[in-house]
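=== RUN LOG ===
request id: a7f3
mode: sequence -> structure
chains: 1
length: 173
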Amino acid sequence: MDKLFVYVDGGARSEPGEAGIGIAMTDADGAVVEEISRLIGRTTTEVAEYRALIEACRSALLHKPESVIFFTDNQRVANHVNGVFETREPHVKHLVEMAVGLLNQFPQWRVNYVDAKVNLRAPRLVEQAFHRTIRAQVTRERLELLLLARTAGLSEPALQKLVEYAERLEGEP
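=== RESULT ===
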């Protein structure tokens, strides 16, 4: 692959809070090559932004592009990885070092700061990760309530059988 364009974003629901990353990769013609949308656990938005760039680098390396341009709407991230200024925060410094180490594996790379209006797809992918998780939680809660309602009228022997069946299910892969 000749050239990749990679849009990255990270976000957290609170500071710190449940966080997610969004990555959209396109080729020179604008065709989508890969999209990543997932939650990464509890952290800050700042850390999520760096983790998105790091994951984007790892994924982009698999495509072996000659040139890659990363786009972020976080000017601080762009300035740190481009060496415009350094951070004094040890945890951020470590993330910057990881990102730069991965970036240096590309023959040519740039990390550009862009306005949030330009970086639309990556933030949407972050939101998708949150929505998928919320939908899964709602579905699980609905199923648990349904199970509770269905078991309310069961006799003690029937409940015992249900518990034994549930234990067998837990042991299955």
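=== NOTES ===
The first strand starts at residue 3 and ends at 12.
The first helix runs from residue 45 to 62.
=== END ===
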